[in-house]
Structure formats: structure tokens, C-alpha cells
Amino acid sequence: MKRYGLDGRRAIITGAASGIGLAATTRLRDEGCRVLAVDLQPTPLDGIEVLVQDVAAPEAAARIVAEAESRLGGLDILFNNAGVSAFMELEGHSDDLWDRNLAVNVTALFRLSRAAAPLLKQSPAGRIINTGSVMSSFGAAGMVAYAASKHAVLGVTKALAAELGPAGITVNAIQPGAILTGITGPTFEQMPEFRTYWENKAALRRIGRPEEIASVVAFLCSDDASFVSGHGILIDGGAVQQA
């Protein structure tokens, strides 16, 4: 069932093959959007244009935006969702892991936003949505690279909101808490104490679902959110306020 008037709007979604990205891709398609789904892996979904691409590659942003213009005829929504994460304690932390976190989570987001801006300025309802994290607001042991990158996402979001606002483009970040996905699921199974920690940390005492994040993404794409910009929106079941 369509809740928002998104018929005919054109969207790029990165990290679209699984988890939050897949849920958002499906939701925006069902809301009437034409979607270019970008991921390292193919995304076989009806009604979805697919582009296999590493977003961190130097030429990725130009290629993705060119494909969107060619296939969709323009652009209204950019959802910078692709991301990586890994646990590594400071002593022995590799430069490669640090560099990959910043490359995917921040640099790719910056480049794609820069490349997409001219098309978004032509839209009457331009939207950029970035995937941050609860760790855009705090840190955790062993997560220095991830926390640094997600803090940067929130900073970039606020700066772009200020710069692109005069063109009518809203820029926001979502900050998911612990969400059950194909990536986190095996970790929760192998480390049940980790799942219990996040369940207890959330005021709602449970793990979130990708579809619950996709609902907020759909709202931010809609005219109902036309005056919402420059914010990091926590979608964490009340976890951060419990800290």
C-alpha cells in the first residue's frame, strides 16, 4: 500500500542488495519510485534497475550518476546507504581497515553527493539521505574506524544541508541502532550476549527490522518531510537515551 506520493520520482540507492538497502529499495519501488539499485552484488528485483559497482572506486560516482541520468532520465533522491564495519582493537588496528571504513562510509558518500548535486538541483523535491548510525553519536571499544566514519557522516550531512538548502534540497541522516540483517544475524547467533546487550540497551527491549528503517527513509523522501533538513534521525528503539 502506498503511503506517500512518490510516483515517478527517481532514486539512487547504494548498498541495495541486502539489509536496510534492500528494504528501502523495495519500499521506494512500492511507493512508486523508479530506483537504480547499486551494490557489489546483483539485486534481482522486479521493477528495479541494477548497477553492480564498488562505490569506493574512484570513478564510481560519475558512473552511477551517469547511469541514473541515462536509465531514469534524472534524479530526485540519493540514498547513500552503502557501508562497512568491522571490530578491531586499537593496538594492532590496521591502516587498511581504517582506510576502507573511511573510503566506503564517507568518501564515497561525499563523491556521490557531489556528482548528484547538479541533477538534484533540477528536481522540485531533491533529497539526500545518508546512513549514519547510533555511533554517529557515541563510540564503542574496538569500533574506532567505524565510529569515526559515522561521526563524519553526520558532519557531512549538516554541512550539505546548509549548502544545498537554497536549491531546495533536503539532506538528512538516519541513525539506526541494532538491526537484524543478513550481516548482523550470524553475529547475533554466534554471540548471543551481543544481541542481549543491544536488546537491553534499547528502551523497547528488542532488535529493529530493516523495514522499520525503510519506513523512515520513505518519509524523508516524501513531501511530508519537505521542511526536515540537517538532522540525524535516531531509529534505535530508544537505545541512545538509555546510555
Keywords:
globular; seven-stranded parallel β-sheet; alpha/beta; 42% helix; 7 strands; Rossmann fold; 7 helices; 243 residues
What does the main sheet amount to?
7 strands, parallel
Q: From the alpha-carbon coordinates, what is the Rg to the nearest angstrom?
A: 17 Å
Low-confidence stretches: none
> What helical percentage do the residues reach?
40-55%
Q: Which CATH architecture?
A: 3-Layer(aba) Sandwich
Q: β content, as a range?
A: 5-15%
**What is the distance, rounded to the nearest whole angstrom, between the alpha carbons of the first and last residues?**
36 Å
Pattern of helices and strands: EHEEHEHEHEHHHE
CATH hierarchy class name:
Alpha Beta
**What is the name of the CATH superfamily?**
NAD(P)-binding Rossmann-like Domain
Gross morphology is globular
Number of helices: 7
CATH topology: Rossmann fold
Q: Give the overall pLDDT as a whole number.
A: 91
